[in-house]
Batch of 2 targets.
Target 1
Amino acid sequence: AQSVTQLGSHVSVSEGALVLLRCNYSSSVPPYLFWYVQYPNQGLQLLLKYTSAATLVKGINGFEAEFKKSETSFHLTKPSAHMSDAAEYFCAVTYTGGFKTIFGAGTRLFVKA
Amino acid sequence: EPEVTQTPSHQVTQMGQEVILRCVPISNHLYFYWYRQILGQKVEFLVSFYNNEISEKSEIFDDQFSVERPDGSNFTLKIRSTKLEDSAMYFCASSEWAGSGTEAFFGQGTRLTVV
């Protein structure tokens, strides 16, 4: 069965520091992987997605993620955190023939001044 | 930019009442979905809908729930007799295709509070 595990329900970084949010997937078929961001009281916005074209994926707001099949990981990074990055981040997976997006539990990012 | 719109943004209802949550998916999308997020928890899949029928549903989507595409633009989720535990944020989503790397576009959500 397909699933996604996000390590760390809360991550706190200082403004300007590296952001690293971890995601590992489990899939018996080639996965398609996504990162969504949810700002307080808002909906889900797509940050970036992996669809097998390139293993390093760049998204909006300076975020990027690298698909590593050997590690079954799709970690999200940003070189320098900004206060506006404070939000909940969800890793998610779909797969060919599937009708649903499967979400991880989410990681709440705090950015300290 | 096209977007998925949901109404209302907030709804308060009494336990046992029926509620209908409404969504207007992106116009050229063919697949429609409802997800639920209980406060502080993960986003959970409820149901997917294609070609006027349910293509997949989760264990959460029991007989109390139903979906409908009453016309060419709206997609609704009905909860027949609400329970306290139905209180959650409900997200509608749509996509051009299913799987194959096509992302789902999500609406802003309807916060349902059952009292």
Target 2
Amino acid sequence: DAGVIQSPRHEVTEMGQEVTLRCKPISGHNSLFWYRQTMMRGLELLIYFNNNVPIDDSGMPEDRFSAKMPNASFSTLKIQPSEPRDSAVYFCGGGINTGELFFGEGSRLTVL
Amino acid sequence: AQRVTQPEKLLSVFKGAPVELKCNYSYSGSPELFWYVQYSRQRLQLLLRHISRESIKGFTADLNKGETSFHLKKPFAQEEDSAMYYCALRRWGGADGLTFGKGTHLIIQP
């Protein structure tokens, strides 16, 4: 298994543009989490899904952020419109129920 | 609300010296505690979880409920231990997301 796969690995965009980050979890994992990592705030949980259903999105910073999980093998995190303060590394992770979380390598977003 | 505090942003020790990375937590229920490690520009990886009571790469951590701490220790640091270390908490038996501390950057000097 290739593990959790995230794309793109790096994205540089201009303020106001739409950004879509993608995640393919490990097959068989039923939970999926999106985290944002910044120097100032560390790792923040944005949203998590269980069996493709959003369970807690209280960490999503603003309405500009949205996440979907149309099926067990794919999730997206969208930012529209993007702002410079959204610059961060976004991690996707998943697991099985109460077990270990496995993370992807992250998507480094820079908004100019 | 749950909170994880890692008081040291940066910890620098010499190779062969003992290492202790501090972690304190605040949680009203029964917690499950973890340590994750992130080597330079790599993905987060699980290092330890308190229920397994294992020693991984020479690291150990004991949950002290009285002091609400879960400090990470290693008796003899190695250069390859240089990395970011994150302490994390989750509701016991829960499938919720982990609450992470802000991390400690461990640097092992030769």
